[in-house]
Amino acid sequence: MTTTPATVTTPSRIVIASRESRLAMWQAEHVRDRLAEIHAGAEVSILGMTTQGDQILDRPLSTIGGKGLFIKELEVAMEEGRADLAVHSLKDVPMDMPEGFALVAISARENPRDAFVSNKFRGLEDLPEGAVVGTSSLRREAILRAKYPKLQIRSLRGNLDTRLRKLDEGQYDAIILAAAGLIRLGLSDRIRSVLTPEQSLPAPGQGALGIEVRADRLDAAAWVAPLNDATTAACVIAERAFSRALGGSCQIPLGGYAEMKNGQVWLRGFVASVDGQQMVEGEAWGTPVEAAALGRQLAEDLKAKGAGEILAALACAKH
Length: 319
Ligand SMILES: NCc1[nH]cc(CCC(=O)O)c1CC(=O)O
Prior knowledge:
By secondary structure, this protein is of the alpha/beta class. Helix content is 30%, strand content 24%.
């Protein structure tokens, strides 16, 4: 979308819809402060709300319908004109946006990697046989089962504070969380080690924020356009195209991670079975403008290597 600055009227009021978890609010406040700086004179406020995804905490995400559950209420607020935009952890945004909504800006990425958090151990390699590791991400579960079969993986849900509390209560020997969330909440000192992409390939969009507006709100899209970071956007477009081509709005154990190297996008990806027994991985290089095609190409490459069989065995695969 191109909008010349002259056509952008300075808004007098901008309302941001956000979930109410501490992390979501931090992210909304970050965007609020940046918008207030860019649009001097505008009153920028946050409308906090609880989503179904926040309420259903006793079941794994994979059984309650997946990512859309965390953004639906925010979209209703935009639909009804109570909010102009929504700020999301891009990782939680479905690959296919609901009709009538669009992601119009991707802000610069925080550390995209997974973090190892423990009160007893320094890293994955230190964990003894039978150690209990908490995660509710199918991606992290598959990676751990494939690479560290001696560990016991247990479900871990709830917001960041809840997850850390469960670790501190001794329910787990270690937990794996996104580094970005811990860093944003000032909890970097809880990170015992940051996992390399070789140890744990991040999820598509991890560490990036996505700003969503109603597709007919060209005005709101223009207000947030300065927040877009071209490098992050190219990387996450590749990651999300990869995930989309494999049906990634569903709960699939897959990782997709792109970095910019010498002006080229370097995308790595894998698909695995939840038990970690099967894993297909690959990589692709291309220019930033080819980012989406790169993602689709890597997905085709993995299918040619047998990813289709892994996907077919998963309940909601679209094959
Ligand atoms: N699925 C929950 C979620 N969504 C975004 C983040 C962290 C922040 C980010 O990736 O931007 C987290 C927590 C986690 O995975 O530990």
